[in-house]
Amino acid sequence: MNQPRILIFACKWCGLIGADAAGKKRASLPARFRVIPVECAALVEPDAILRALAGGIDGVAVLGCHSGGCRYNNANHASIKRFELLKDLLDTTGIGGERLLLSFGTAHEYHQFEEIIENFFNELAALPPLDPWLSPFGVVS
Fold first, then answer.
1. 120: Cβ–Cβ under 8 A, 6 or more apart, which residues?
2. Thinking of the domain 6-125, which architecture would CATH place it in?
3. Separation in Å, CA 19 to CA 37, 72, 93
4. Which helix (H) or strand (E) holds 102?
5. Pick from 124, 55, 134: which is nearest to 94 by CA?
6. 76/5 Cα distance (integer angstroms)
7. Strands of the sheet with 59-64, listed across from one edge
8. What is the pLDDT along the chain (141 residues), one digit of tens a residue?
9. Buried-exposed string 23-33: b where 16+ CB fall within 10 A, e elsewhere
């Protein structure tokens, strides 16, 4: 079975709290993911996602606050539009939009974090691994 690598950008107000709670509860999660805390999901630049995929990461998840619960004037609404366009770009280039996950609302909900990551991991495991040498974006050094 393919063991995909996942990079998670987690809002420090929601997604990161869910990730931390999952760790404290010793949730059964795949080992091949890393969490990068961000101030807000809307601050994750599409370029960072493209560079991660070009560097061999199999999937990127962006976890933000509940819709309407963003501390930055609903900035997560803008991120939804931006990441939907990025998914279209990933489909167009042949990488696949399914390699990008955008989810909202994991604060204090470790079981939701666990379920989201487990499902994303299983979806990515069904896909062929990304080869950074064949990526249309090239290899990032």
1. 6, 59, 61, 101
2. 3-Layer(aba) Sandwich (3.40)
3. 10, 21, 31
4. strand 100-104
5. 134
6. 25
7. 33-38, 6-11, 59-64, 100-104
8. 578 999 999 998 888 888 888 888 888 888 899 999 999 888 999 999 999 998 889 999 999 887 766 667 777 777 888 999 999 999 998 899 999 999 887 666 778 888 999 999 999 999 988 765 555 554 444
9. eeeebebbeeb
| Residue written as token pair 């939804």 | 80
Distance CA 36, CA 99 (A): 17
**Residue whose structure tokens are 């489909």:** 91
Nearest to 104 by CA among 23, 32, 9, 5: 9
Whole-structure pTM value: 0.87
Question: What is the pLDDT, as a whole number, of residue 44?
Answer: 94
